[in-house]
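pasting for ref. prot 1 ->
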Amino acid sequence: MGESDRQLANAVAVVTGAGRGQGRSHAVALAGQGADIIAVDLCADIDAIPYPLATKADLDETVRLVRAAGGRAVPVVADVRDLEQLEAGVRSGVDELGEIDIVIANAGVVAIGDTRTRAEPVFDAIVDTNLKGVWNTLAATVPSIVRKGRGGSVVLISSSQGLTGRGGDGSAAMFAYAASKHGVVGLMRSAANAYAPHKIRVNSVHPGGVATPMILNDFVVRQMTENPNPALSQTLLPDASLVEPQDVTDAVLWLVGPRARYVTGVSIPVDAGHVVM
C-alpha cells in the first residue's frame, strides 16, 4: 500500500468492542489506512448474556493484527457501561498515542433466542451496553477530539434492528435490543448537531446479521434452530442471510475518510435490504 492510500495517516482512532468480530475488523482496517488504535474491550463475560464474550487473548490478537497492519496500538480493558473506567482507559491511550480523531462505538451485546418476557437482567445488560455504553463512549472520547481542534469522525454501530421492529417476539431480549439500537440513532442525530461546530461528523451504521461470534455461537444457533424467526433473516438480496464484518468495515472506512467529509447525521444500512422488506 502506497502512502497515498493511507488516508488516515497520523490519525488516532478509538474502537470499542475491539476484541473480535466487527470491532477487530474495523481496528485492523483503520490501521491499514494509517491510523493508530486505542482498542477497547471488556474482556470478560456478562452474567445475563448467554454466550461467551471476547477475552484478553482476543484483544491481544487484535493488537497484534493492528501492528502487523502498520498501526500503533494500545489495548484498553474497560467496560463501556462504566464511564469512569472507560475515561481512564481512553486517557491511557491518549497519553501514549495522542489526541483522538476517530471514534467507532462498536461494543454491543444481544440475546437472540432468549424468549423470556420479563428477564429484567437481560434487558438491563443489553440497554446498558448498547445504548448507555455508546453515550459513555461519546463522553469519554469527544473532548479529546475537541482539544485536538481539527475535527473528526464518530461512527456509532447500531443495527438493522435500529431501523425496523421486524422480528420482534415480545421477549425482554428483543425489546431491549431494538430499543437500544433505535436509541443509538437518537444519540447520533443529537450528537451530529451538538458536535458540528467542532467539525466533528457523527453517523450510524446499521448491519444486518453479521458472521461474528455474537451470532455464530452455540446458544444463538441452538435457539434460532429451535425457535426460528424468519423475519430476522429476510433480505432482498439473495444468498445474503449474513453479511461479513468486512462489509460493515467498508462503510465505516468511507464514513471516517475524506470522501465523506460532508456526510453527517445519516444512518447507513449494511443489511442486504433487510430494513426495506
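and prot 2 ->
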Amino acid sequence: MIRVVVVDDEPLFRDGIAALLDDADDIDVVGRADDGDVGLDVVLRERPDVVLTDMQMPGRDGLELTRDVVRLAPGAVVVVLTHFQDDRYVVPALRAGAAGYLLKDSTAEELRQGVRAAAAGEAILSPVITRKILDALVASDASAAVEHASEARTRVAVLSDREREVLGEVARGASNAEIARALYMAEPTVKAHLSHALAKLGLVNRTQAAILAHEAGLDGGGEPVDR
C-alpha cells in the first residue's frame, strides 16, 4: 500500500485529491494539511511514501516543505502539485529534491499513476515537460547557466562512461526500459548504473540527476562534458 500525505491550502482541492487517490486499492491517504508547517508535522508523524504539495501556501511554503522533507524524512518522495505555467516555482523545488510534478488539472488516473511512479522511484515528468523544465533552468539567467554548466561538468567527471550515458538518457526523459533499449543493456544494469551515479553525485533522485546531466550537456542540451 502506498501511503500519501496531501498538502494544499485549498480545502476543496485538497479533499478532492485525497478522495480520488483513496479510491485506488493500492493508495492510502494517511494525512492532509492546509500549509507546510502542519504538513511537515504530518509527514514526520505518518512517514508516508509520497508527499503531494502545493507551492504557494501560508507559512512554510511548498519549497521549504520540500527541503525539510528531503532532509528530515528521506524515505518520503515529494511531488509538486502545480499549474503548468508555474515553472518559477517548480524548478527550485526540483533542485531541492522533488521527484517531479503533477498538474492540478490532471485526470484521476494521471494522479494515481503519478503517485505510483513516485513511489517506484521514477521521475514524474513527461519527456516534453522534462525538456521544457530543463530548458527553463538555463534560459532564465545566462551567467548562472555558465556557472552551473562548469560546476556540472566537474561533478559528472567522476562518473564512468556508461554512467554518463545513462544520465544523458535520464535527462531526455527516458524510462529505465527505454534506456535499456537505447543503450543495449539489461534494465537491472540500467538501474545499477543510475544508483551508482546518484551515490557518487550525492543526489536523491533521477530528477536531480536529469537537471545535472542537462547542465553538463550529457543530453546534448549544453556544452559536452570533458572526457
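Residues 222-227 have pLDDT under 50 and may be disordered.
The radius of gyration is 17 Å.
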